[in-house]
Amino acid sequence: MNMVQNQTVSEPHRPRNGNTAVKVSAGHYNYESMVQRDSHIMDVTPSPMKAADYFFVPAVLRGLGTTLRHCLGNVGRDGSNKKNIWVVQYPEQKRDDRSVLDGGQERSTFRGVHRLNRDDQGREKCVACFMCSTACPANCISIVAEAAPWDDREKRPLSFEIDELRCIFCGMCEEVCPVDAIELTPRYEVISTSRKEMIFDKEKLLELYDLTIEDKPM
Fold first, then answer.
1. Domain range for residue 79?
2. What are 136-176's pLDDT values in tens digits?
3. CA–CA separation, 27 vs 22, rounded Å?
4. 33 assigned to some structural domain
5. Less Cβ crowding at N or C end of the chain, within 10 Å?
6. Contact residues for 114 (Cβ-Cβ < 8 A; gap 6+)
């Protein structure tokens, strides 16, 4: 259905400068002239090929020159030529040790594996409100709640599982948590031999809190 069929448009008024002013019943709008000028036109016609281009000789030589420049620039430098290719000799070297401008990683804002935070009494801070699992776009968080034995909350998680292989590390769970119970840590070195090991339960998430509290304080 045409949404503007009931609007009344008056005759266009043409000022001396050549622009067109159109009056619409919903408001007044001044449109610049739609006349095409030579300065508005860009010629995208490809230039004709030269005789040498039919054999692709110049393109091949330019490609080989780029390859040789990178190869010879790293000879004897073990990939540490900053101006050419700066290779990270992992695990002896890590991106955490470099500045962001040099291709490094800002560890304080990196979103790695999750952890469940503890309160001052060593208890999990999670109140099993299901906000994180509801907001998760990947549906990788599974929570089973139970009644909490403490007076400061009604529920706590009986089980709390995150599928790290399914997670997209968007940080939505961290943003929506009302008690700051779940956080993404700077840790990215996670090794497993099966998919089952990458499903972190509550005990694993609390263990990660103990391991990463120095890297990312509360």
1. 60-101
2. 999 999 999 999 999 999 999 999 999 999 999 999 999 99
3. 10
4. no
5. N
6. 162, 164, 167, 173, 182, 183, 184, 185, 200, 205, 208
